[in-house]
Amino acid sequence: MSGSSSPRDLEQCPTEHLEQRISTLEDRIERLRELVARAYENTPRAAAELLKARRDASYAAAYAPSPLITVRLGAYAGGDLLFERALDSVRRQSYANWEAIVVCDGREESTAARIASLGDSRIRCVQRPRNGPYPTRAPARWQVAGTHPFNEGFALAQGSWIAPIDQDDKWTDDHLEVLLAAAQRTQAEVAYGVARTVVSAGGETYFGSWPPTLGDFGFQTAIHHAGLTAFLYDANSHMIDEPADWNLARRMLEAGVRFEFVEQIVTTYFVEDDAPTIDWWRGRVLERGRFSPG
Asked: Of 70, 131, 212, 248, which has the fewest CB atoms closer than 10 Å, so is most exposed?
């Protein structure tokens, strides 16, 4: 094939030419990866679905006064953290018109019973019959864990906005109020803020900046328009080495979804010792430090 290189060709190249040809091959592989991803994701179709959603009569309801917000929460062996962090912070919200859907990623009778015992009609629990399926390899599994219950929660939502939160995260009391105000003021379809990040035995830092980028965006800091039904979590995003949260945000951005950033802390995110990204976060503590607005 013209322009291709065989192993023997590479062995016979002088060192200076070998490095150049390897660099060229790496560039071509990266371009091929991007082309495959774009074909799989079908961004033009997603953009068309976005325009269709904006024309729907129900689209404007999200920008009316006091719309219902659906809190979407995936749970897996959540235990006390689910109740003491995530659900406690949801129930403390200054914005009152919300519902919460907790989707257990596999049957968890104890979690369902504990949610029922709260006696809060705004919170309902749905149990998936099984966990996953997810990749068996640890790094890949971490990148996409939770995608199935996240999508199911979206499908069951009755609100005009979706507010994602993970079982071990914690919102500020004005999380929903602040993000909804920003979205309605600017007609954004995604509004997001800053996450204070507590790193186990490593101090404190943050993520969240404008524009959204890998490592500086997470949906636990955001609300998004419920009309964005063309955009779901992809359980296969690990195949292009992207965490599912960022993969979803990137696809939204490329299709033309309107984002708005609020430069204030709206969420606390916790990184434990056993997290596969713990070293990266400890490095960010040293590099970036704590959040300081402006």
From this structure: 131
pLDDT of residue 1: 46
Counting residues of the chain whose pLDDT is more than 70, the rounded percentage is: 93
Amino acid 251 reads R
Residue type for position 138: A
pLDDT tens across 202-232, in order?
Answer: 799 999 999 999 999 999 999 999 999 999 9
Torsion angle (degrees, nearest 10) of CA 18, 19, 21, 22: 110
Dihedral angle over CA of 241, 244, 249, 253, nearest 10 = 40
Question: Does the global pTM surpass 0.85?
Answer: yes
